[in-house]
Amino acid sequence: MQADQRSAYIAIEMTHPDAGIQTLLFEQFKEFKVLLESALGEQWDWQLHVENEHYKTVSRIYYELPQVNIFNKDDWPGLISFFKPRIIALDNFWTDAQYGFSLFK
Q1: pLDDT at res. 103
Q2: pLDDT reported for residue 53
Q3: What does the alpha-carbon distance between residue 15 and residue 73 come to, in Å, rounded to a whole number?
Q4: CATH of region 2-104
Q5: pTM
Q6: What's the rounded Cα separation, in Å, for the pair 63 and 65?
Q7: 94 has a pLDDT exceeding 90
Q8: Long-range contacts: 64-69, Cβ < 8 Å, 24+?
Q9: CA-CA distance, 78 to 33, in Å (whole number)?
Q10: I need a surface site. Which of 1, 16, 20, 69 has the fewest CB within 10 A?
Q11: Residue 102 confidence (pLDDT) above 80
Q12: Each residue of 12-38: pLDDT tens digit?
């Protein structure tokens, strides 16, 4: 989860330094895409091998809430309403999907 003065987002981020392993993880998540979208109740954006704010190559599955400011108290209820159901949905998804990722441990 990330929130700043411009937006907020929640993501599954693959940060392994080996691009090949990142690709394998990303592909494994694609195998669970229907389950993930069912748990979330919405479609998220998928990015393979993008540069993050620290200039590292990552892959991510994310959903963004634009035009909010973490420092504006008036935006806090919207941020909570944005993050809370998605955290719960991700936890529910992971309860079912975690075993499909056991080979990456």
Answers
A1: 75
A2: 87
A3: 32
A4: 3.30.300
A5: 0.90
A6: 7
A7: yes
A8: 64/7, 64/8, 64/9, 65/7, 65/8, 65/9, 66/6, 66/7, 67/6, 67/7, 68/3, 68/6, 68/7, 68/8, 69/4, 69/5, 69/6
A9: 26
A10: 20
A11: yes
A12: 999 999 999 999 999 999 999 999 999
- 12 and 29 in contact (C-beta within 8 Å)? yes
Strand partners, 66: 7
pLDDT tens for 38-83 read 999 999 999 999 999 899 999 999 999 999 999 999 999 999 999 9
Report the C-alpha gap between 82 and 101 in whole angstroms.
27
> Are 67 and 75 within 8 A, CB to CB?
no
- How is residue 44 written in tokens? 């998220």
- B/e letters for 52-75, b = 16+ CB within 10 Å, e = fewer, are eeeeebbbbbeeebeebbeeeeeb
